[in-house]
Amino acid sequence: xxxxxxxxxxxxxxxxxxxxxxxxxxxxxxxxxxxxxxxxxxxxxxxxxxxxxxxxxxxxxxxxxxxxxxxxxxxxxxxxxxxxxxxxxxxxxxxxxxxxxxxxxxxxxxxxxxxxxxxxxxxxxxxxxxxxxxxxxxxxxxxxxxxxxxxxxxxxxxxxxxxxxxxxxxxxxxxxxxxxxxxxxxxxxxxxxxxxxxxxxxxxxxxxxxxxxxxxxxxxxxxxxxxxxxxxxxxxxxxxxxxxxxxxxxxxxxxxxxxxxxxxxxxxxxxxxxxxxxxxxxxxxxxxxxxxxxxxxxxxxxxxxxxxxxxxxxxxxxxxxxxxxxxxxxxxxxxxxxxxxxxxxxxxxxxxxxxxxxxxxxxxxxxxxxxxxxxxxxxxxxxxxxxxxxxxxxxxxxxxxxx
Length: 403
Ligand code: 3PG
What we know:
The protein is an alpha/beta fold. The protein has 15 helices and 17 strands. It folds into two domains: 7-177, Phosphoglycerate kinase, N-terminal domain (Rossmann fold, 3-Layer(aba) Sandwich), CATH 3.40.50; 184-370, Phosphoglycerate kinase, N-terminal domain (Rossmann fold, 3-Layer(aba) Sandwich).
């Protein structure tokens, strides 16, 4: 049987290097608190309570994106949730970081700078190659053990996720353990009735991948978010394009147009698209427009419309299982929460097996007064949760598992 070493197997008082996934929404430069902090705080508190000297690694955004920022704010948010001080050093594996690591006392916690600021972190390469990087070779000797708690990033073959387990004693953190167990069990479940997937969010490739991999398991895909607009564009509507300083659509369209068009052509009967969209009018209020009345896109669409929610809700209510991956709109702004909240409420009111995944989506549950207990599993993972559902293994998990 394959299994992890977990924190139960780790002796107290070690020098521990732990990888978390604190990748978060960033609005106007401000990092937004979300479920990831709360969940990882459990692992961090447990490590500090066991008198380990703890250095934490995490990433935020990707180079070139607005969300690619320092982890300084993350340290404070994490400290609030964990109830322990979390120091921060603006360096990942240089002298400044090594000095700060050297200075750790038992029970101290230090967050290192965004791993994606290191050139060797991002290129997707085999774990054996990552294990040889300066990043891994410099940090590893400063620790006795490596803990990976970043299940939600485990689909990425990045140095901080796959390199260390090859050269160090490696353990799964509490989030890694619970997410792995839940998502693996869910992936093996069979359903007799209708299986529906609500798919939104900003990453078109994730959506296409999941639809490709799950087209035999899922009866209905209900689309929204950026991906939903791109599918509407493929269906001939004048949406799914960048306007103003927006750069969410055209690049993704160019990269995925063929796949989106053929997915739509081959699975038309399984795909339901929005019939109306919401935007901010000149008075700053929510306004809605039927997609067939849009002649030219001249504004950003921030949510699916109310008619769409009325189309999606009965499909959800008639389902034996509903999976959610990504939000249907920009729910952080209450005016544009109608699609996401409407879908989640329909799920909560239905006696179905339900899983909500997607880094940000789980945040909507709390923001709008619902309880996680109304869903069978709420995952803080997005891309990794989807890959697990398709039965695909996760490289960051594979390197932790032992025979
Ligand atoms: C996520 O937020 O889903 C993970 O942290 C992975 O982030 P990425 O898609 O930028 O690699």
